[in-house]
Amino acid sequence: MALTVEQRFFLAILVIAFPFSAISGDPDILSDFVVPPGTNNTLLDGNFFTYTGIRPLVNSTPPTNFTVTKATMVEFPALNGQSVSYAVLQYPAGSVNPPHTHPRATELLFLTYGILEVGFVDTTNKLFTQRLEAGDMFVFPKGLVHYQFNCADNDSAMAISAFGSAAAGTVSVPSTVFGTNIDDDILAKSFKTDVYTIQKLKEGFPPKA
Ligand SMILES: *[C@@H]1O[C@H](CO)[C@@H](O)[C@H](O)[C@H]1NC(C)=O
Ligand SMILES: *[C@@H]1O[C@H](CO)[C@@H](O)[C@H](O)[C@H]1NC(C)=O
Ligand SMILES: *[C@@H]1O[C@H](CO)[C@@H](O)[C@H](O)[C@H]1NC(C)=O
Predict the structure, then answer these.
(1) Is the pLDDT of residue 206 over 90?
(2) 150: Cβ–Cβ under 8 A, 6 or more apart, which residues?
(3) Domains in the chain, please, with CATH?
(4) Rounded to two decimals, what is the model's pTM?
């Protein structure tokens, strides 16, 4: 059976696209796990695969501002090469996790208590929003701008997010744009406003020295 021109075209696209789909997560490793250089494997035990850095949050008083506690390969080296990581997100009433992206991972957020308004914007500029209740999950597709807001008057919220990378990375939109010394004129033109407005916005995001 001969293939039509369209069928050949789609076949060609599939063949071209397939190798890229296979490298969409962290690179595969050629060992069971990766240990830091100089590690004596004989001494390796369950402790290397255990992270206790989240323990202090259990039964602690909720923070007074939005707080992220990460368990990425930086804090938990055994994640290196395993394509997973976690973050614990604590939201006092009225607090926001400002618009940001994770360039290397999808985020799967699980709301453990409280309520949360969440949203992301796709590459066609369409906004998807949801109001989550405790026990709900929401997926933020890889690389897209997203946010979370605790809209409650009085109650804090807590979520646990899983990432499909040991080093998902975070790019915060406000501090990337206004906290990195991009020229005022360039920002004024980009945001269709004046230099004074840009300078006012920059006051909230002092550049790191
Ligand atoms: C690794 O640890 C074992 C057990 O303590 C020890 O016998 C061995 O000499 C160590 N190897 C190296 C390369 O340090
Ligand atoms: C957040 O709150 C903690 C105490 O809960 C405080 O130490 C810290 O400075 C606050 N951070 C900001 C950016 O306000
Ligand atoms: C918030 O909680 C405090 C302490 O429980 C209570 O006194 C206050 O009335 C609450 N405020 C609102 C807006 O629910």
Answers:
(1) no
(2) 91, 92, 93, 94, 95, 96, 114, 115, 116, 117, 156, 157
(3) 5-170 (2.60.120.10), 179-209 (no CATH)
(4) 0.82
